[in-house]
Amino acid sequence: MIFYRHRVSSKKVSDSFYAEPNLGFSLLTRMNLKDKFNMKIENEMKTEKTAKFSLSKRHLIFFLVLFGLIVFAVVRSSIATRLDSFTIDEAYHIGAGAAYVQTGDFRLNPEHPPLVKLWTGAFVSSFGYQLSPYRTLQDKADERKFVEEDIYLNNDPDLIQSRARTAMFALNGLLLFLFAVATRRVFGDVIALAATAFLVIDPTVAAHLPVVMTDLPVALLSTTAVLFALAAFRSWRTIDLIFAALALGLALSAKHSAVITMAAIAIIGIVMAIFLARNAGIVVRLRRVGLVAAVLIGAMIVLWSFYLFRFSESPVTSEEQFNRSLAEKISDVNSPRYRAGLNMMARGHLFPRAYTWGMADTIRAGAEGRARSVFAFGNRYKKAPFYFFPGVIAVKLPLGLLLLTVIGAVLLIARKIPREFIAPLCGVIGLAVLFLIVLSTGSSYAGIRHALPIIPPLALLASLAIYKAVESKSYLLRGAVAAALIAALISAIPVLRPWEYYNETVGGTPNAYLYFSDEGIDISLRAKELTEYYNENLRTAGEIPFILYPMRQAERKGRGLDWVGKNLERDAEKLDSEMLSGTVIMGARQVRSKPAFREATPIARFGNLFVFRGVFHDPDTKVLRLANRANNKIYSAEPDIEGAIKLLSEAVALDPKKYHNAVELGNQYLKLGKREDALRAYQIAKENAPASDAISELLTRQIERVEAEPLEQISPLRNPKVE
After folding, report:
1. Which of residues 10, 33, 56 is at a domain's end?
2. By CB neighbour count within 10 A (0-12 exposed, 13-18 middle, 19+ buried), where does 30 fall?
């Protein structure tokens, strides 16, 4: 357009020059003016071409560097995690995803939305994954067993894992790319590349890149969605609004916790549409509020698309096919407000039924908390303190990255950054704060993986330090940023088995189990090394070990292991004893919880997998075995209630403080119509349950009902340990 205007102007000058030769200038002067004008046009054209070339070159450099970072992340992670086994949830997710793809049925593993499962399920199914026919399932434990037997017994688990890792590297690499593009859209090239580099360096991100779990995808997609939303609510352009809706829809399809992201985007949108709309009339503001609503509705449409726009989980019937009915699942939730919201979702068909079922499970197990104490910061808590998750982040991030984050926070507070960065940074930090608030009121068993949505906002905060160092002439700032980056690289990049990484504040990776026992320590990733140790040292000697490491029975069978408890008749004497004699294999998380092993010296150690030999007094293990055997009898296709009662009675007598066993015992007596026995069991549970926990109030009401009402009208109390 500039060139066109200049050509028109030039034509007018030349026309006037030839039409009116006697304007008071000499012919030479007029020719000089024309030449100068033409030279000016040529210079402007050259400048414009140079600017376009520079812009194009900058784009190319940005994407080349970004591509290099993502490739490095994948290569580094593939090397560092190559010996990892499946996490405790991966087989469940992969098997369910394969079932989704092959049958169009979403009944399995509904506690997680389908994005990750469909992605990996499609990939493994394309190579011939063998799927068993559906059968009636008795609650979650039975469903897990059904799916995991397919992975470990009917397929080659190592081959499935290799294919699943390839699929997840591709998915998470793509999500890193989208995160960088969204960051660039709001903050520019330097911040985008710096934030991506932060994530690439972080060992926890490296550990999650290949695993079939939903934590990293929802973390990346949540921040990406907020960034796209910030851009959309600033420009109000259709294309930006579409990108925001797509990103939010993908986040919702990755994990239920993305409803927090949805709430954050709704708040940001309303604030920007109404309160930050300068010189805008009421009509414009209302129209923008409508556009915010359109983004949320668009995200819901994306979510529904992953369920094939079908309310029912089954393609052949509208009848429920879950392992436990939706009504029962909602009734398990303690909070009346949550129950009311879930019932509204179910009756109004706001979400696919499987999504609502999963939301109920998430609220029960996550927001309201599982019946687990936590060992953190060197102390045991019945419920984790409010600072648990900030503390976990502080010990899981490399110190160099923490220093960059602190510098970035100082720059933001001091407003030493571009003014246009402040509002979007506040929006992203607001997302992190919302997640922290929800996490602080929920369960802490998972540790850092549930806090992963906070890491990308911290990466953006830390990238401010790099941005300022690039443009600043301060040698102090540049030196501090360079030192932090070098320290982070030295601390993080060489680490193998990055899932177990902890920084130096808690003695580094080898000693972190002395301070923490959440899933950030281990999540069954050492099963292959356990198998190798068994084959090399125990199988040939004919020794049968105690395997206390949290390794699924299907995997133990699939890998050819033998262990005390595999054959109940053969091992009856050992199972009835409180003593463990011979070889005992356990994870670091178990070591801290068992007094007999805290001071014992292992004969072998593989990271957070320990092998002990000797004679150890361990009554807790006997109680756990009794409870597990009882649950197998209760949650099976052919329940054995009398057999379960016998096992649970013994477990409660040995350790009444494990109140969840007494809850289950009361439930079984209730099923048989034994009022006095049920009352006694519930009262034992009430005496030992934490007074501050919701289960205490539920037990009080259950006892009152059992005392006064017909037993057939009373439902069993949901065992908090089942979740």
Report:
1. 56
2. middle
On whether residue 680 sits in a domain, the answer given is yes
Domain boundary among 462, 478, 508: 508
Q: What per-residue confidence (pLDDT) applies to 718?
A: 82
Closest CA to 202 of 526, 499, 507, 519: 499
Residue 309 has pLDDT above 90, yes or no: yes
Identify the CA nearest to 404 among candidates 489, 339, 277.
489
pLDDT tens digits, 249-268: 999 999 999 999 999 999 99
Q: Which residues is 584 bridged to in the sheet? A: 546, 612
Spatial CB neighbours of 721, under 8 Å, sequence gap ≥ 6:
370, 371, 627, 660, 661, 663, 664
DSSP label at residue 617: E
607: left (phi over 0), alpha (psi -120 to 50) or beta: left
Does residue 393 sit in the same domain as residue 489? yes
- C-beta of residue 186 within 8 angstroms of C-beta of residue 227: yes
| Domain housing 532 | 527-617
- Under 8 Å between Cβ of 563 and 551: no
* Measured distance CA(661)–CA(659) in Å, rounded: 5
* Residue 157 scores a pLDDT above 70: yes
pTM metric for this prediction? 0.89
Rounded Cα distance between 2 and 44, Å, is 9
For position 39, what pLDDT does the model report?
64
Q: Are strands 374-376 and 379-381 parallel, antiparallel or unpaired?
A: antiparallel
Alpha-carbon torsion (114, 118, 119, 124), positive or negative: positive
Total domains, the chain: 4
Phi, psi dihedral angles at 390 (to 5 degrees): -60, -40
Residue 323 lies in a domain: no
In this structure, are residues 226 and 261 in contact, taking their beta carbons and an 8 Å threshold? Answer: yes
Using alpha carbons only, give the angle 465, 467, 470 rounded to the nearest 5 degrees: 105
- Residue 504 and residue 381 in one domain: yes
Mean pLDDT of 273-289: 88
* pLDDT > 60? residue 3: no
